[in-house]
Amino acid sequence: MNESYRTNQENSYVVNNYFHQEESMKEETKKEETILTRQMKKQFAFFGPASILYALFYTFCLYRNASGITYPFFVVGTLCYFFLSMKKLGVPYKKNSLFYMIGIILLGISNCCTDSSELLWMNKLGIFLLTFILILHTLYYDAEWNFPKYLGAILRTIGCSFTCIFSSLSDLKSFYDAQKLKKDAKNNNIFYILIGFSIAIPILIVITALLGSADVVFRNMLMKLLYFDISFTEMIRITCLFATVLFVSYAFLTALCKKTVPEDVTVRKTGEPLIAITVTGMLSIVYMIFSLIQIIYLFVGNMQLPGGYTYAAYARQGFFQLLAVCLINLILVLACLHFFKDNLILKIILTIISGCTFIMILSSALRMFMYIATYHLTFLRIFVIWSLVVIFLLMTGITVYIYFQHFPLFFYSVAVVTIFYIGLSFSHPDYWIARYNMNTIDMESDSGDNRKYGNLYYLSTLSADAAPVLLNEDLNPCYLPDHTDGSWMYDFYRRIDHKSDQMGIRNFNFSIYYAKKKGGF
User: Fold this and answer.
1) Most distant CA atoms of the chain, gap in Å
2) pLDDT tens across 227-256, in order?
3) Which of 176, 235, 295, 343 lies at a CB distance of 3.0 to 4.6 Å from 273, suitable for a disulfide?
């Protein structure tokens, strides 16, 4: 009897403990949910189909298509997908988001107007960063956010997206269960349509591959339209890309709805300023000595090189030193202003460091111009000049921020980099490289190291952006109207000819089209 009673008590304890743990888990789940999360689950009838359509749109626009005419449509479609989702969740649009949207769309347009691999890579990076900033700006109050805060918010959102990767499946189940209880015929129809989509897509892929194998005309038509082979291998890749985009896009929206990033910025200006004054004071002495040497030896000394130095060694050494010093100065100034108490002496020292950085920028620019005058232009050398201009403007903003800490340094920096990069992207650097080099290269003396790094060999590796110069017999003395082998230009002809042959409707590129028209391929 006692033993039976004890057993019942133990069983009762286990059951009560189980329900207690279950209630605790439910409470934790509720705490993780936000108003936006619940709203997204409730309106799965919109977000489910929207994510499917976006995944199809993404796959059509970008599969094996890095620089086609579909790219600007893709960025506009992505913005529409995001803002429609936010509108459905009740998140208001901010008027000052227009700058980011214009920047994203312009970079998307630039992608189908250039053939430069360097620009294409940087365009995509710029689109990604601007889109992320736009999303965070829309969802959070970020007026007081700084660089570390934005970096932390981006990393935190990406990390949260990984944890929500299968949230679409759980939300689908919750939606189905809810509709069964409500017996809502309209929403049940949406659920059945989603199931139909899931079944139809793999069947459609298999049927398309079979029809493509059965009829050459049908196969060629699809290949011309889509620019990829209609085979089972390609279809599997397309399916994988579609599924990945579907899960990732929905997971990203779910992560945004959780709002895991705290909006407030923690101010930790508790450090003793004497520590920062000591460190920056010693550095400023070194910087002033270095700057004085630049003024006396390089500027006043008519830009004469030290003995034993070549232009290449001097310019490269100067640039990478400057880049490292500018990054150190950027971090140093921001760290001092963020962690240490306000102090007038510290601000003066930081101003001296910024002033010395301006002198280093000028020194590096002069040496780079000397280098270009001897070894001609390349994309990297144009990018160096561009970087120096941008660094100069960023350091100007930091100098203002030293004394006026309400200055919107983050937005200023994003605006400077975005505006100047869009200018670089649309300028087609390969065109100016070809134009400058064809006017300065000595065709007869082009050999050895000169050929490898700056002249004819390098010109043959340029993108289709350089075609208006290289395929112009008035500007290019090596132009071959019949495109026959026999010079360095043959490699350029062959690459442009191959790219123009591979160009279809979906991957149409204005730069390649113009090169094709110019060269008569």
Assistant:
1) 111
2) 555 666 777 788 888 889 999 999 999 999
3) 343
Report the C-alpha gap between 482 and 451 in whole angstroms: 24
- Burial class of 363 by CB neighbour count within 10 A (0 to 12, 13 to 18, 19+): buried
Say which DSSP state 340 is in.
B
Q: How do the residues of the chain divide into helix, strand and coil, expressed in percent and rounded to 5? A: 80, 0, 20
Helix (H) or strand (E) holding 351: helix 344-375
In the structure encoding, which two tokens stand for residue 63, read together? 């599969």
Q: Which helix (H) or strand (E) holds 73?
A: helix 70-89
Secondary structure (DSSP) of 231-289:
SHHHHHHHHHHHHHHHHHHHHHHHHHHHT-S--S------B-HHHHHHHHHHHHHHHHH
Instruction: Please count the CA atoms within 13 angstroms of the CA of 87 that sit on its side-chain side.
Output: 8
Tell me the whole-structure pTM to 2 decimals. 0.83
Q: Is 298 exposed, middle or buried (0-12, 13-18, 19+ CB in 10 A)?
A: buried
203 burial type by CB count under 10 A (0-12 exposed, 13-18 middle, 19+ buried):
exposed
**Residue 68 near residue 509 (C-beta atoms within 8 A):** yes
Q: Tell me what percent of the residues of the chain surpass a pLDDT of 90.
A: 23
Distance, CA of 261 to CA of 137 (rounded, Å): 12
Residue 303: which residues within 8 A CB-CB, separation 6 or more?
Answer: 366, 367, 370
Cα distance between residue 12 and residue 142, in whole Å = 52
SS3 state of residue 37: helix
